[in-house]
Specification:
This protein is of the alpha/beta class. It is about 55% helix and about 15% strand. It is built from 19 helices and eleven strands. It is elongated and about 80 Å long.
Length: about 600
């Protein structure tokens, strides 16, 4: 308490902090970055293991036979023949196939609209069938889902997924060991259908729910989303990251991985094809591959985008992932993976999930995969992240202490507190105005015409320029106080964001912390210009645009390419806004409500007199 009340000790603390704050900041940041890169090494990672012993993975004898495989191939040929037919007719044929197997089949009707055309309400229609558990009374269930896509889709075709589901339904329907219902779900209209069904199943009232579901099963324990084009695929791609970087329980990932290994099926994580190659014996090559794998996962989580319909199940605490089948030869030739091995692996997954006595809870929910067999736990990556944020706190305290020690020694503690309050009151309007610009930019999206996006960006830039012009009338002391408050706000915000989406907070901290801490207007003209350029590069929208157009930058001198880059940039901003309205991607509100006000505040203090 003496440090907080004794003016002499306050001056001593201020002098000590003022003399060493920059060195402490550099040391903390460098150690934090080095620590993060060390975590990729096998000496710091953990080998994947099962925490839930009730799963008993791979201990059952598979019963899926060649007859079931022939049925899957027959259904696949039927779906391929119908690929040019209307989607409604294809859906009715799928519904009849489930009914012929004797399953309980239900329709799901819903409404939806797109952000570009919010006034145009469209109708959707999904189908789902349920294999009732013979050893329980519909208390729990497992979902196997697949999207129904037209032949001209730009995504992976899914006729193989639906054929595989029908074969599994044929095989599962007469088994007496099921203690959980098995739901086979076929949705249309891409993610709109899956989102509407999950919301309706959990009783969520939204604009998409047109009518309640008449057919229900038990509480969903896990979900597997399939995107298999045909029985001729070369390898599988596991997509585990959901919306806003949410991850399934690691036990589910380990279960799927183990059973795929058991059937000898090659697979990758998030499309990183280098994982198909043998593990390098050279330490440097292995480290670089693990680093790339980790970065792939960090990037996918930070962007928060939907990479499969499994993301909607994760929002309701249902552990889920997507299995994609990839044809590396463009669909020509015979792949290494057929329906039989895929079905045997899915049968093993369902039977292991059938053994669960309670929800997934024992293994990790927060982790980073460095390879299919190793991961970094939350307890390992949190301390270095704290060191990355520490320079913000150190510099904020140093700026505050510098202003406090600038008063005359005759000032007593009471006048010192009064002066501090006056300084905060003087910069409070600037703090409020910066956040008003961020809130106005975000709320304007609710009334935004996507064709007027460049004009909307121009309006934001004019608002920012107005604040920058006004900041020229700010005194040096007020600028230091404002920067101190903004650094504290950034530190608190990044700590909070790391609890929601750690990869996003990590990427922001890696690039924003050094710029926020070490850029200053107390520099010669050349250095000041460099600092100003760094701040401009970290304008919150710019990194989002850069992540989509960076591969075009080497040819940007060409006018045609430059025009393409501009269109790609505006489309990336439109996509970020659309993703927020369609399925709640947090990247948009984080950008406009958190990062933009902080950027404006830092830009204002940089240009203050």
């Amino acid at each position: 308490m003496g440090l907080l009340t004794d003016p002499g000790r306050n001056d001593q603390f201020a002098k000590l902090l003022g003399a060493y704050y920059m060195k402490l900041s550099v040391i903390a940041y460098v150690i934090g970055v080095a620590w993060l890169f060390c975590l990729v090494d096998d000496n710091f990672t953990l080998k994947t293991y099962f925490s839930e012993n009730a799963l008993l993975p791979g201990l059952v004898q598979h019963e899926f036979s060649s007859l079931n495989e022939n049925y899957a191939l027959k259904q696949h040929r039927m779906l391929m023949d119908l690929s040019k037919e209307d989607s409604g007719y294809v859906r009715e044929r799928i519904k009849k196939s489930f009914q012929d197997l004797g399953l309980d089949v239900y329709d799901h009707y819903y409404n939806y609209s797109t952000p570009k055309h919010p006034d145009k309400i469209r109708n959707g229609h999904g189908v789902y069938a349920i294999v009732r558990a013979s050893r329980a009374n519909s208390l729990e269930s497992i979902v196997i889902s697949a999207p129904l896509r037209p032949a001209n889709t730009k995504h992976i075709r899914t006729e193989g997924s639906i054929a595989l589901m029908l074969a599994l339904a044929q095989h599962f329907r007469h088994k007496n060991y099921w203690s959980k219902d098995i739901i086979f779900l076929v949705t249309d209209n891409e993610h709109f259908g899956a989102k509407a069904w999950v919301e309706a199943y959990h009783g969520c009232k939204s604009a998409a729910v047109n009518a309640p579901l008449y057919g229900r099963a038990g509480s969903i324990q896990a979900a597997i989303n399939l995107e298999i084009p045909s029985p001729d695929i070369d390898y599988l791609d596991l997509r585990i990251v959901g919306i806003n970087g949410q991850l399934p329980n690691l036990d589910l990932v380990n279960l799927v991985k183990l059973l795929l290994y058991k059937q000898g099926m090659p697979f990758v994580i998030h499309g990183f094809v280098e994982l198909l190659e043998r593990t390098p014996h050279d330490y440097t090559e292995k480290y670089l591959r693990d680093l790339k794998t980790t970065f792939r996962m960090v990037k996918s989580s930070a962007l928060g985008r939907l990479e499969g319909n499994h993301g909607f199940f994760q929002q309701y605490n249902v552990q889920s992932l997507t299995i994609k089948g990839i044809q590396s030869m463009g669909g020509s030739g015979r792949g290494r993976i057929g329906f039989y091995r895929l079905a045997v692996a899915l049968e093993g997954i369902c039977r292991s999930l059938n053994n669960l006595l309670e929800r997934f809870h024992q293994s990790f929910f927060f982790y980073l995969m460095t390879s299919p067999n190793r991961f970094i736990s939350i307890g390992m990556y949190t301390p270095p992240f704290g060191l990355l944020i520490l320079p913000l706190v150190i510099n904020a305290l140093a700026l505050w202490a510098r202003d406090s020690s600038a008063k005359s020694p005759a000032d007593n503690s009471l006048s010192s507190v009064s002066t501090d309050k006056t300084s905060v009151a003087a910069v409070l309007p600037w703090l409020v105005m910066a956040h008003v610009v961020g809130v106005a930019s975000f709320m304007g999206q609710f009334f935004l015409d996507f064709s007027d996006l460049p004009q909307s960006l121009g309006t934001i830039i004019l608002e920012v320029m107005y604040l920058l012009f006004c900041s020229r009338f700010m005194t040096k002391r007020d600028a230091n106080c404002l920067k101190s408050l903004s650094l504290i706000e950034m530190a608190i915000g990044l700590y909070a964001l790391s609890m929601l989406n750690f990869p996003l907070a990590l990427l922001v901290a890696l690039f924003a912390v050094p710029v926020a801490v070490w850029t200053s207007n107390d520099q010669p003209s050349p250095a000041r210009i460099v600092h100003a350029g760094l701040i401009i590069l970290l304008y919150p929208i710019f990194p989002v645009v850069l992540s989509n157009v960076w591969h075009k930058l080497p040819e940007v001198y060409d006018p045609v390419v430059a025009n393409d880059v501009f269109e790609m940039g505006t489309r990336s901003i439109s996509a970020m806004i659309s993703e927020y309205f369609e399925y709640g991607n947090w990247l948009d509100p984080v950008t406009f409500l958190f990062l933009m006000p902080l950027w404006i505040l830092h830009w204002m203090t940089f240009w203050a007199r």
